[in-house]
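Renewal narrative, Specific Aim 1. Our central claim is that a sequence can be written position by position from structural information alone. The example that follows is taken directly from our test logs and has not been curated for this report. It begins with the structure tokens describing the chain, in the order in which they were read.
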């Protein structure tokens, strides 16, 4: 009997050490962990796909805007058009059609098309070719105001500063 008990204990220990025992609990745990792992892998793949899609959408959204710098020749509020003289080429006059989604800034503040005055300095940012420009943003600065402020600064600099008059001290 002692020999039989010793053999059984040895066989049991052998199965435990080398994993040949048929124990359903660890297999169930293994199945659960593999399910969790596959879900995690699927989530990572979905996240990677979303990131890729987001990057592509950003690239499409980041269309390079071109600039046209010039001086306003005329403004037609009824037709939403602006004629602008190119600042580099005085003979070059372009007409831009404005859509409803155009952002207009007049001296750094939000503005409207009817606030744009002729002879104002203007920067137009647009998409596409200049002939078929889709205007996105307009920055307007009044040319006259800049000159007036420069003159004011020059006048302030030229004004003499009051001099201190020193009186001689008597002992």
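The sequence written for that structure reads:
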């Amino acid at each position: 009997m002692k020999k039989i008990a010793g053999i059984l204990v040895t066989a049991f220990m052998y199965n435990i050490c080398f994993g040949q025992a048929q124990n359903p609990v660890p297999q169930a745990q293994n199945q659960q962990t593999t399910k969790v792992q596959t879900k995690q892998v699927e989530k990572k793949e979905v996240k990677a796909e979303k990131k890729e899609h987001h990057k592509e959408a950003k690239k499409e959204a980041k269309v390079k805007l071109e600039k046209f710098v010039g001086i306003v020749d005329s403004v037609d509020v009824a037709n939403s058009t602006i004629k602008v003289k190119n600042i580099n080429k005085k003979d070059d006059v372009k007409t831009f059609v404005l859509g409803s989604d155009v952002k207009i800034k007049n001296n750094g503040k939000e503005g409207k098309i009817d606030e744009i005055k002729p002879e104002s300095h203007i920067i137009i940012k647009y998409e596409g070719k200049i002939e078929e420009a889709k205007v996105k943003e307009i920055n307007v600065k009044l040319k006259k105001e800049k000159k007036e402020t420069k003159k004011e600064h020059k006048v302030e600099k030229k004004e003499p500063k009051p001099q201190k008059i020193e009186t001689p001290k008597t002992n």
